Amino acid sequence: MSAIENISLDQTELLRFITAGSVDDGKSTLIGRLLHDSKSIFEDQLSSITNTTRKRGMEGVDLSLLTDGLQAEREQGITIDVAYRYFATPKRKFIIADTPGHEQYTRNMVTGASTANLAIILIDARRGVLTQSRRHAYLASLVGIPHLVVAVNKMDLVDYSQEVFDRICKDFAAFAERLNLHNIEYIPMSALHGDMVVERGDKLSWYSNRTLLDLLENISINHDINLDDFRFPVQWVCRPQTKELHDFRGYMGRIESGSIRTGDAVTILPSGLTSRIKEIVTYEGFIDHAVAPRSVTLTTEDHLDISRGDLVAKTDKLPRVTKEFDAMLCWLSDQPLDLKRKYLIKHTTRMAKAVINRIDYRVDVNTLDQEVVDTLKMNDIARVGFKVQQPLMCDDYAHNHATGSFIMIDEASNNTVAAGMISLAEA
User: Fold this and answer.
1) Which of 24, 253, 266, 300 could tie 235 with a disulfide, CB 3.0–4.6 Å?
2) Backbone Cα Rg of the chain
């Protein structure tokens, strides 16, 4: 049985996706429509937003109110934070991140996109592909979202024109060729009226592909998990103080990628010590085989000095152990980067002090141009070089998200100031 075949339904039924687009493209309305038409909202919620809609002098139900939860958002009619919503159908469970459309909230989209399997980029059919559409496509490419849906919304305002839809698809595809985007699907829709969201409607008969919900329910995400490279960051060393288990020593954590079997040869990094897996322990008991992203306790045949922050990997496929690396960095803090300061890096379960020793360039996310800068400000994205005091066990982010990503922390305030994606390839 292959590793993919051995993944349980519980591990694959959850789909995380984000919605992004320019202001007033209809992101919140789309999510509201998904929740409403899939019967995923409670009667009291529906009653509340119906009353709010009436108070505003509007007819019907403003479904965007289901996601615009912050008071500031309701006053301005925009989304300024990442709003998470949950719903389920008989086929799959979903976590939605409704991300901001304004340029100054780029960091919010990067946060929402960091764990997503799929991104929906909304485009207003009247306005076509805008600068913000390109920005969000670039960010989706940057964080390595495997699947992209281009939802051409508000088709009702262009008389459901196939010509308009085809032109927008062509424009977006031309830009996407410059990015690392492969699995792109295009859907015409009207979130306001529900066409091609959950139900097909009767206005887009010329479009024969599946509806948005049908796509979300059936798109394959099994291959989104790296099943080739076993990576197990140690979170905790388990030493039970009981008479029965007085000599038990297990290493607890989550398998971030790959799979492991009892008897497999493993190497402990950064020490380089080697052994074999003796036992794989779970809450339910002992098992012979475990696959990412399962949490387990491992024991080894040899008594080794292993502690939190170490990484267990299969001996035949090891990550790079290094104190220097390059990364694409998204600056999240309102305090600019200080190149003279040391910061903390949290990489898997390991913490290390680090300095940025150079800024190669900042990316203009509107044009993809590379700009020379001497500091980074909030929402800036740049390629930088790092030096760390303790070695990190890294993979290229494009190959392994778990061991290719990290956050930067201000040691004084304990605030997260940046998120990074490691690049082990040459610039």
Assistant:
1) 253
2) 24
CA 211 – CA 121 distance, rounded (Å): 15
Domain 231-314 falls in which CATH fold? Answer: Elongation Factor Tu (Ef-tu); domain 3 (2.40.30)
What distances in angstroms separate CA 401 from CA 65, 79, 164, 328, 332, one per listed residue?
A: 34, 28, 37, 13, 19
Is 171 annotated to bind ligand?
no
Architecture of 9-224 per CATH? 3-Layer(aba) Sandwich (3.40)
Q: Is 315 annotated among the ligand-binding residues? A: no
> What is the per-residue pLDDT across 86-111, written as a single tens digit (0 to 9) for each?
888 889 999 988 776 555 556 677 77
State mean pLDDT over 116-138: 91
| Residue 23 to residue 7: CA distance in whole angstroms | 39
Q: Centre a 10 Å sphere on the Cβ of residue 17 and count the other Cβ atoms it contains.
A: 21
Q: Is 413 annotated as a binding residue?
A: no
Residue ranges of the chain assigned to CATH 3.40.50.300 = 9-224
Strand ranges inside 309-396, DSSP E? 311-314, 320-331, 343-347, 350-363, 370-371, 381-394
Greatest Cα pair distance, the chain, in angstroms, is: 76
Q: Does residue 196 have a known ligand-binding role? A: no
Q: Is 101 annotated as a binding residue?
A: yes
Domain 320-423 has CATH 2.60.40.10: no
Supply the pLDDT for residue 1.
35
All CATH 2.40.30.10 domain ranges of the chain, comma separated, are 231-314, 320-423
Tell me the pLDDT tens digit for each residue of 48-68: 666 766 667 666 666 666 655
